[in-house]
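Blinded run. Sample ID left blank on purpose so nobody reads anything into the name before looking at the predicted structure. Input follows.
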Amino acid sequence: MAYVKEFNVHDLRRAIDYVLNPAKTEEQCYTAVLKCKDTHTAHDEMMETKRRFGKLDKVQGHHYIQSFKPGEVTPELAHQIGVELAKRCFADKYEVVIGTHLDKNHYHNHFVLNSVSFVDGRKYQSNVKTLNNIRKISDEICKEHGLSVIQPKGRGKHYAEWKAEHDNKPTIRAQIKADIDEIIAQSYDFDTFLELLRLKGYAIKRGENVKHFAIRPPYSTKFIRLRSLGEGYSDEEIARRIEETIFQIPSRNVRTFYYKGNARNIKPTKRYTGLQALYLRFLYEMGTVRKRQCRPKVTAYMRQELLKFEKFVAERDFIFEHGIKTGEQLEEMLVSTIGQIDEISAKRAELYRERRLIGGAPLEEVKAGIGEYTESLRVLRKQKAMCERIFTNIPALQERLQKIREMEVISDGRRTNGRYGYEDRI
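Blinded prediction complete.
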């Protein structure tokens, strides 16, 4: 089944524009309105209802999101379920705008409903009871279509914690998570992680007779379960994160870069230049900082960079996979990708028009064609985004590399010599 969550809306036009975003709804192919003339007039009609009953202040609307399990629904089915949910829950008293977003692996419906009823002018009461009722109806509709259940991840925040984060005030949980993130970047395995926690003043509750792994920071009197910190902070997830951050160069003769347990062997006699050299050198420097366990004088800066480590590795793998060495080659690939996107988008738009005009057996073939084009566009758009990101990162990466080396000099009193020609022209 789908999972439903809710937010209050204070800027109605902005919320509606987001829900109807053409880039997310296949050029508004998967949008709808209830109790409004069309998507173009929905905002004005909702505001007219508010003016009619003199309720233009406070909460302007309510935004619901209905998310489906990846690969379980087609765009058409997701949109159909969304429209049906809106009809059952709101359409008898409230104006609603619906948009089915297809830009993520999991398709999801967005609903924005007017906070004021067009029938009696009463404001919609959004609370736990109404949200649970909407979830119940959503489950019923999904059961009718044989869909599975998506359970919410993690736990909700206590109001005091949410309020502190909202006001940019430090919280104990936020500090614990920051400490854990820092220690993960310095750890080689889970035992190292526990030892560094103890050195930082943490008490650890763990063992056969302990049901839940818990820690107590030196600035608190209570133990806090790791799982309660949210996604990525259970003991199993922390162990996995430590494994994923391993990056080392074990031999000077055979240069092997490790990441997520997979190795990329690089011939010792080959000299890399341009973009490939830049990424290899930058990741090598980051690996060196990891190996030295982030000396205190560079920890704050490098912690920010290490959090982006997976992104940099993905970019490195991309340019090696496509044999990109220069900015010109990267630009050629970007232009080619944009051309393919335009060509396939035009072909898919033609199939959309054909689908509206025909029915019967050929309709399934058209749908299949649309699905193939959509999958191709998803891959190409990711490729385009990667090219654009690397373009943006070229000067920034050089600056970061220089910053790392300068801070290493401050920390160690020495400078290491480069081996990959990262200063070559790009």
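Unblinding after everyone has recorded impressions. The beta strands are 3-9, 31-34, 61-67, 96-101, 108-114, 203-205, 214-216, 224-225, 255-259, 262-266.
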